[in-house]
Amino acid sequence: MKKLFIIKAGTTFKNTVSNYGDFEDWVIEKLDNENLEIEIIDVQAKEALPSFEDCAGVIITGSHSMVTDEEPWSVELEKWIPSLVEKDIALLGICYGHQLMAKSLGGVSSYHKNGMEIGTVEIELEEEAKEDRLFNNLPKKFKAHTIHSQTALTLPKNAIRLAYNKHDSNHAFRVGKKAWGVQFHPEYSRNIMNSYIKEVSKAKELPVEKLLKETEETPIANLILKRFGELVEKEVNND
């Protein structure tokens, strides 16, 4: 039977892991789908990418690496992404995954001119989101968690922009029928966002008290992952 593969593109802070788990744990929790067979592929640990024939869907996680560093595992993953899209395999890229998708499909990803975006922020949907399988029937504005210094500066030519905010004009996009990139983190909880703020503040000056006061749970953003899991489940059942 085909599986949902989570491509683990890195690991989080040690303190965050010990308290809340890692990227793949958060994704699985927010998928909230016991019907899916899920396999984790740790590409930084040089685990091999799955065959396309085995993929009902693919999620590419966030990472503390930078897309522009073009590490060998990242370059291999970047070369793999276009075939997923061509073969119409359901794909969701989160943060790093979003940026790598944009780059792999002909867009440009690099550092944001206004620096880091961190904390619970407001996301606004484009009109095109009303017809989208993941974003339809959602409020035009909703809260989501973010932490990124790089961004998809230019989307691929055939991409449909789905969401934006004051900081980032490309917070979500779709290519084809089943490939999405989201800059925000639909897998985060408020506790995870708070942990990131505290950890990042050890190396970078942040208005910590203000950021922590403004965090909240983000059920609408979390719903994106659940909907993606339901879409993949349909792919398995229709196979």
UniProtKB/TrEMBL annotation:
This is GMP synthase. PANTHER family: GLUTAMINE AMIDOTRANSFERASE YLR126C-RELATED. PROSITE patterns: GATASE_TYPE_1. It comes from the Bacteria. One of its GO terms (cellular component) is cytosol. It comes from Halarcobacter ebronensis. InterPro entries: ChyE-like, Class_I_gatase-like, GATASE. Residues 19-193 form the Glutamine amidotransferase domain. CDD domains: GATase1_1 (cd01741).
